[in-house]
Amino acid sequence: MFSDAYQGRRVFITGHTGFKGSWLAAWLTQLGAVVGGFSDGVPTTPSHFEAMNLGPHLEADLRGDIRDRDSLASSIRHFHPEVVFHLAAQALVRKSYEDPALTFEANALGTLNVLEAVRQCPDVRAVVMITSDKCYRNDEWVWGYRETDHLGGSDPYSASKGCAEIIAHSYFASFFKDGPACATVRAGNVIGGGDWAADRIVPDCARAWAAGQPVQIRSPWATRPWQLVLEPLSGYLWLGARLLLGKNTPFDPQNQAYNFGPAADVNNTVAEMVEALALHWPGFSSQMDTAGQAGMQECTLLKLCCDKALAHLGWKATLDFAETIRYTAEWYHCFHHGQGGKQPQNMLEFSLGQIAAYVNAARQRKQIWA
User: Fold this and answer.
1) Structural domain that includes position 156
2) For residues 341, 347, 352 and 354, what is the CA-based torsion angle, rounded to 10 degrees?
3) What pLDDT digit, counting tens, does each position of 260-301 carry?
C-alpha cells in the first residue's frame, strides 16, 4: 500500500490519542512505520486509543499541550521524524462557543507551533496538516466547496480552522519552498468505530442505545457528506507518501490543499444517518428528540468537491453510504458485545481487521494507492 512509502519511516502524529489520530497511528504501525505521538492526554472515556491498548505498539507515546511550543518542538526534535501528520485540535463546535479562546489557541496557534517545530527539524521531509471542511466560508450553496473557495466561518471553530489554513500556507510559501514538501487537507463528518466525543451524532447514538435510551439529536434535517474514518485517512496517507517520495514538487501553490470526501451523491441528512444506523442496532429504533441550540450557528448544508484529489492523486472514496454505516455499527457492536460470542481483550485486532477489509475493498475497486 501507498508505494511502501512508510516502511521503516519515522512518523510523528499530533493528536494520536484522538478518534482519527488513533486510527491513523494503528494503520501506520501496520504499514511498518516507526510511530511517535504527541497528545494532551486521552480525550474521552472510553476511547479508541485505550480500547486498542495502542500505546505499547508505538515508539513514543508522549503527552503535552499543543499550545506549549517549547515542549512540542523538543518532542519533535528528539523523535527525528521524516513525516509529520498534524491532527491535534479542539474539534467541537459547541465547545468553541463555550471556550473560544482555547479553540483559537489550540487550532490556530497550535498549527503555528507545529510549523515552527518543523522549521527547526531538518529530518522532516513531508508534512500533512489536517484542518476541516468547516474552514470554508459557508454560503449554504448546493455544490461542493473547492480548494480555491473562500476560507472563514462565523462560529469560533470554523474561524479557527480558516486561520490554521492561512497560517499553514504562509509557512509553506515563506519557509518551505525548498522542503519539506507540505500540504493541508480538509475533510469532515467522519464517522466510524471508537468515536466517543460529545455532541457528535454517532457517539450520541452509541451511548444512548447502549443504555436503552432514545437518542437526542440536533438539526435532524441538516445534510452532511458522511464518510468512514478510513476514507480520508487513506487520502492523507497517499498524499503523504507522494510528498515523501517527491511525486509533488516541494512548493507548488496550486497543489498545497486537498479535499477528501465521499462521492457527490453521498449527502444524507442527520435523520437518515440515524435511521440507517438504527437498522444495525438490534432492538432499537431511531427515536429522536430534537435539542435546541440557542445562540449557536452551524451550517445545515455542507459538501466538498473532491475533483482535485481525483485529478492530481488518483484518489476517490471507496465505500458507499450503506457500507459506511455497516463498518461503524459493527465496531460498536463488537465493543459492547464481542464477536462470535467472544469478548475481545482489546479492540486492536478488530480495528486492524476493519482496515484490512477496507483495503481489500479498495483493491477490488481499483484504488491506485492499494
Assistant:
1) 2-187+227-262+301-319
2) 60
3) 999 877 788 898 999 999 888 876 655 555 554 444 555 566
